[in-house]
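Hi F.,

I've been meaning to write this up properly since the lab meeting, where we talked about keeping a consistent format for the predictions we share between groups. The idea is simple: the sequence comes first, exactly as it goes in, then the structure tokens exactly as they come out, then a line or two of notes. No screenshots and no reformatting. I'm using this chain as the first example so we have something concrete to point to.
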Amino acid sequence: MDFNKIYNNTPDSIKLSFLEAITEQNQKLQAEFIAYAETKISKTDKLSYEKFTSIVNNIQADYQKQFEAVNLEDPDWDNYNPPHGGYIEEWEAYQIASEQEFEAILDEFRNDAINTIIEQCPEDLTAMLIGLYEATQDADVPDEVCSFNDVNEHLLSEHKNTLNAIIDKLKLSALTENKVATAFEMFLRYSNEEYPGNPHFVSHFEHLLISMAEKCSNANVLLDIFNKSGLEKEVLPELILVLNKLAGNKTEWLQSALQFYKNSAPVAMELLLYYFETDKAAFVTLARELFATDEHLWANFLQQYITPQLDNELFVKVFLKLFLRTHDMQYYHKIKDYLTETDFKQLLADVKWDEVLTVKILEIEERYADIKLMVEKSSNKWHFAELIEPILKIYPEFSFTQIKKMALNTVQTERGRSIYEKIVTWLTMTKQIPGFETESLMLIQQVYTHKPNLPALRGEMRDAGLV
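Output, unedited:
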């Protein structure tokens, strides 16, 4: 369903009736509409840089103080909420209690931040988020009980979570362009003046800037603000791509993507998708280059696009990587008809430590003689059933002999509920072997009447319906 197409072809009367219906009982939406309308109709004063920095400093001081008030040696046990009713180690309880105190502080911030979105103040929101960021980095919270590897790192990760939650709210809100432009201008100026040459600070807020930019119909305004800021485009590659795309600057978009893709996976993904639609040969060349740099990352991405027709060799490499990492047989099925004998031998060598996985591969290839040889050589009791199951009907006499030997040897030498469950599984399998129905019953009886008596084993056999 194409929303833009339907929306553009819908009469204004229907749009207005929908707006009235959804705002009638929703007070937050009413407040957001009022703020949006007022900023559109009236000429509100532009937030000054002095006011912006004042908000940053006030938030930083307030939340630094709150963070430092958390006593990790004696957290707030009165409001501690254990995550479950089971046993919790003492050190873990201290850590969870401290995390919950920090979370309560951040909940207060999130509520205030959402109000700034409703009030159409993205520039205030940006200042607040910067102030909170600085509080997480400046807070001096002693940790004598070692609840955290690094308290400030924990707070920074929580800031990231808070930022992501706010971005989700922004995506659902309406923002006026002049407010977004002011937020951009203030953020970029603050970055230049307070964090010159620090790409980590700027990149931390990149997705916030993107979420606001996507609300702006004239991206060239934001590009102009960025170009005048003095910041290098390399520090915000995803944002530059988004702005060029929104502005319809196709040539600049491609130039930016080619400039930044080696240092930004999201940019590289965008470039790959562009080539996939416009130039399959360029797509393959770039995919090969990227896959060589990080097979784990790019196998996940490329599986949706690479085919044997595009590049047989890369197709095999991608799905072979996925198979070796996940052991998911669906990946093997995709490439099995494209493997050379050399590829196949190398694959078996790579997975030889996992007998069960090896047997699954051999079963798909119907190489039952190789499975038979593995069963003969293996001493793996715990996975014996999985190793022999594929050849029960291929080599019935061999299979019955192997199971009988394994069952009788084990019942003589080992005890315990888990091993008895294995024995029962093996005995049950003998009933599937064609032509050995009588021998199966005799073996089951022999194990059941084993001396000395094994009541637990007998119980397992009865529960399984063997006797």
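Notes:
Residues 1-43 form one domain.
The CA atoms of residues 148 and 154 lie 7 Å apart.

If this format works for you, I'll send the rest the same way.

G.
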